[in-house]
Design brief:
About 55% of the residues lie in helices and about 10% in strands. By secondary structure, the chain is of the alpha+beta class. Helix 4 runs antiparallel to helix 5 and helix 4 runs parallel beside helix 6. The structure holds glutathione (GSH).
Length: about 210
């Protein structure tokens, strides 16, 4: 197995954590990111399997699988020994819903914080309205998560892909102004997951890569 991945890509991190939690080995091919040039260079071998030019892509037996959710569902079907999805239909729907919500926040809202906060560390020319609207969107999302995690240890039964995707989205968002101070159930769940070796290792690598970017 080969994973085309970016250390600073939350979508790639979803797959890297899933591989580690499932105790699966994969060759990692890194697509770099820098403040100056963003994603790239992108080698021809990568573009050949990634029509959108996006990470992550998992190559297995000559097939290139694109999209973090599709990759993780493939891993679940091909390597079920350590399950990361529930089996009961309603719990599976709930799992997919939270993962989709996490993906939506990464694609639509985290990107605003990256553009306005991470890329403008001195605050110059920052679009404060966009930041305020984004933080309001996170507040509504966190309220729903807090309600769920006040009565459950995980998002859909046992530890799952939904927890992985939600955690990594919040891990990035927290470094850019989203606070978990007023959401104790999320905070406790966040800290429990952060203590898992796969999460701790990934987070260390992300912090180091962000500092160097
Ligand atoms: N829906 C995709 C989204 C993947 C995605 O947006 N990847 C970003 C990095 S986080 C990317 O590779 N961007 C490349 C570019 O903008 O050039 C997934 O879940 O894998």
């Amino acid at each position: 197995m080969k994973l085309w991945s970016g250390t600073l890509s939350p979508f790639s991190t979803k797959v890297r954590i899933a591989l580690a939690e499932k105790h699966l080995q994969s060759e990692i091919a890194e697509i770099p990111w820098s403040r100056a040039t963003l994603w790239g260079p992108k080698p021809a071998a990568f573009l050949a399997v990634s029509p959108k030019g996006e990470v992550p892509v998992l190559e297995e037996a000559g097939v290139g699988i694109v999209d973090s959710t599709v990759i993780n569902e493939y891993l679940e079907e091909a390597y079920p020994r350590v399950p990361l999805m529930p089996t009961e239909p309603l719990a599976r729907a709930e799992c997919r819903m939270w993962e989709d919500m996490a993906d939506h926040f990464m694609a639509s809202h985290l990107t605003v914080l990256i553009r306005e906060v991470f890329m403008k560390p001195d605050g110059l020319n920052r679009d404060e309205t966009a930041v305020k609207d984004t933080l309001s969107a996170y507040e509504r999302y966190l309220a729903a998560l807090e309600r769920k995690l006040s009565t459950a240890e995980h998002l859909c039964g046992a530890f799952s892909f939904a927890d992985i995707a939600t955690w990594i989205g919040l891990a990035f968002a927290r470094t850019l102004g989203v606070s978990l101070e007023d959401t104790p159930a999320i905070r406790a769940w966040y800290d429990r997951l952060a203590a898992r070796p796969a999460f701790a290792t990934e987070f260390e690598q992300i912090v180091a890569a962000a500092a160097a970017a």
